[in-house]
Specification:
Layout: H1 21-44, E1 100-106, E2 115-117, E3 123-125, E4 133-139, E5 142-149, E6 157-161, E7 164-168, E8 173-177, E9 190-193, E10 209-211, E11 217-221, E12 236-240, E13 247-252, E14 260-262, E15 269-273, E16 285-291, E17 296-297, E18 303-304, E19 308-309, E20 327-331, E21 335-340, E22 354-358, E23 371-377, E24 383-389, E25 406-411, E26 417-421, E27 426-432
Parallel strand pairs: 13-17
Antiparallel strand pairs: 1-27, 2-3, 3-4, 4-5, 6-7, 7-8, 8-9, 10-11, 11-12, 12-13, 14-15, 15-16, 16-20, 18-19, 21-22, 22-23, 23-24, 25-26, 26-27
Length: 434
Amino acid sequence: MTGTPGVASPQGPRRFRAAWLAPVLLGLLAAGPLHAQNAQAQKSDPALAPPGAQVTAPPSWQQGRSSAHERSTLHPFAPLLTGRPASELPLDKLKVPAGFKVEVWADGIPEARSLALGDKGTVFVSNRNLSDVYAVTDHGGKREVKKILSGLNAPNGVAFNKGTLYVAERDRITRYDGIEDRLDSPPPAKVVVDNLDPEKQPGHFWKFLAMGPDGKLYFNVGAPGNIVMPNYMQASLNRVDPNTGVVERVAQGVRNSVGFDWHPKTHEMYFTNHARDWIDDDNPNDTLHRLTRTGMNFGYPFCHQGDIADPEFGKHRSCAEFDKPFMKLGAHVAPLGLRFYSGGMFPAQYRDNMFIALHGSWNRSNKQGYSVMRVALDGKGGAKMTPFLEGFLTDAKADPPMWGRPVDVLVMRDGALLVSDDYNGVIYRVSYAR
């Protein structure tokens, strides 16, 4: 490849190196003191062990379990990768506030994850475990689902801006210019930035993607395990200039954020974050954060929810060193997509409120989450969270405890709210008509 590292090169894809050089050197200098802390993690995660080491490990989601949890039967819940038709769903169990209505907007979208709205009304839908991107078009109330991209590597993140669809895969971000006019024959991908996963990390490798008010693409790089020492680029929020390919770190100490948006008036960034597993049923909380400056550090892996020191990594650190979360959302509720409501359909008091999709817990005896929550800001630095869409959770102690799992939310131009459900491969529409 020719050209300056971190800057667009006409001969090939953009790779970021220069922007990360200083953190790399710092990481190398810190490698010695971190060796002892990483040794315990290597016992649970073979990907963290040195070459040639003999490691017998349980599944990666068990990494970080203490001896008290060795006999635990708790486990994650896989989506129905074939999806389910709307006719098989118990929609009568769903609850919304008075005056609102919820219905299936589209089905037949296996593992429907992140949502993005095109200029001409096309809704783009991503995958995480699968490899496809879908487009949903509406023709006079009749919707058509098309698979437009396939063979991708965990294309969880999608964003749309000025005629271009951006897709965040495990290791790169690509763009598809003018795609809304070419849904049946999409243009070839153009690489915005690659080399985002040089170590082929385990753990939280999928990425959320959104266009910020500064015209840059924001994305997460999750931690490579439940509770491990991240390297210089993991457990962070970042942004890339889509025109130059230059990447900058925005925040660190973020275990795994899979949803963010900007306040319509203040333009401050808010994002969800998943706390670690395997402490106990009620700790730590998953969190909502507000980014008030670049370079903030929210504590992972040393501190969780702003006030709980990690049993291992936090032994010689203080939570006072790190920036605090904006709000605690509940233990193991798995907050994902987040959007501010900017539409005109809902009552006036909903304007500029946040909607947050809670995917739901697995690392808890009595499961919780599995809902869409409304967060109203009070203008004084505080906020109140109330349920908005409930009914997916059927039995908190059952296996599985739910029949659906919200992932992302999207405000449509008519003011309705779409909610994706990766468990069933379905998108719901919530409208107001009082």
